[in-house]
Amino acid sequence: MKTVGVISFQGDFEKHLERSCALGMRAVPVRDTETAAQVDAIIIPGGESTTIGMLLQRFGMLDLIGGRIREGLPVLATCAGTILLAEEIIGSDQPRIGGLHVAVRRNAYGRQIESFEAEVAVSNSDWAGWQDGSVLGVFIRAPIIDSVSDDVTVILEFEGKPVMVRQGALLAATFHPELTADTRVHEYFFHTVAGFPRAT
Known about the structure:
By secondary structure, this protein is an alpha/beta fold. It has one domain: Rossmann fold (3-Layer(aba) Sandwich). The chain contains six helices and twelve strands. The strands form two sheets. It has a nine-stranded mixed β-sheet. A three-stranded mixed β-sheet has the order 5-6-9. It is globular, with a radius of gyration of 15 Å.
């Protein structure tokens, strides 16, 4: 059984742990370099990107995770996690892991009270599960992906903007897939992006 680590300093990490376990993964919270060095994949959850980045830096995990990404570690990033994974955060020099060749803008849809839900469209159906239809996106102080490099594939879109992208073993969404009953984003990450076998 593969072990999925969820960065668990701040944010909605418990929902990702629950979803991962429900889909047959062994899921563990990640709060130190020892655990981060041992897991087979990492999920970087939503929350406050500056806070999470500073804590990752304080505990020596920014460089460790960045190095593991260069070695092919599968990563699912959601909302604030996508900001931390982006190579460019427009207007900010906050600590970040990097590795994902996109430019993002923080809180681009507005404040907490302007959070919303919307159906997002499938842009690239490289997995049979996407043929089941659109995905409900929960956007909470969500970033916008302003631009992507040629090696980044847009999987889901909303109003002409990418809201989920893939670059090799990296999958990043600007919404919160763990807050709905639809398990497809996590299934896609585990079994297509990361290549983990399904539980029998």
